[in-house]
Every structure is written in C-alpha cells, then in structure tokens.
Amino acid sequence: MHKLYGKITRKFRHCPIANINIPDRVIARHSYLRQFAPALLNQLQFQIETGGHKTDELIEAVQVLQQMNQAGRHKLPDHTPTGFIPKKWQPQVMAEGNINKPA
C-alpha cells in the first residue's frame, strides 16, 4: 500500500490537489465525514489479496470502526491499530501517544 501511495504521489506531484495535506483536510471536515462514514463503512467489504503487517492493520482498523458504529460507541479502543499510518501523517494522527480521533 505504501508503494502504491508513493507511486500516486510521484505521478501527481505537480497537480494542485496532490499538494493538499490530507490529514489536515480530514480533521477540518471530521464532523461532516462522521455524518455518512458509518453508513459507507457498513456497506463496503474490504478485502486484500496479499497481506503484510501494515495491510492487515489497515483492515483491522476498518473492522474496529465498523464494530464501533454497530455498537454506537464513539471512543476508540486502546488496541486500535495504527501501524499502517504513514510516518509523515503520524504527528497529526498521534497526539501525545494517543490517537487524534478526527484524524
């Protein structure tokens, strides 16, 4: 997944949208995204053909969100996977060792 992200960002690095800081945009639009994200996650089934540690953690994180939405919970569990988060996004996603939920 990281390789794919790298290829995409290299290909579109001159495109204005490629220079948008994605975590900042997600954080800014968190309340809007929360309106439809649970319904979207409930309808999608994520699958992988070949896994790796980061890919497995990403699928597990999506499953955690799906379970939270089904149970009506809003607090992320302590065991929420974060190993799939790109290093350059970690300062925005992780705040003082805790997950910045809007991120």
What would your notes on this structure say?
There is one protein chain. This protein is mainly alpha-helical. It has one domain. It contains five helices and two strands; from the N terminus they run αααααββ. A two-stranded antiparallel ribbon has the order 1-2. The longest helix has 19 residues, at 53-71.
Distance between the termini: 19 Å
Tell me, rounded to a whole number, the average pLDDT. 81
**Strand composition percent:** under 5%
- Total number of β-strand segments? 2
List the uncertain runs: none
Q: Could you give the order of strands across the largest sheet?
A: 1-2
Query: Biggest sheet, in brief?
Result: 2 strands, antiparallel
**Gyration radius, rounded:** 15 Å
Give the count of helical stretches. 5
Keywords:
single chain, mainly alpha, 52% helix
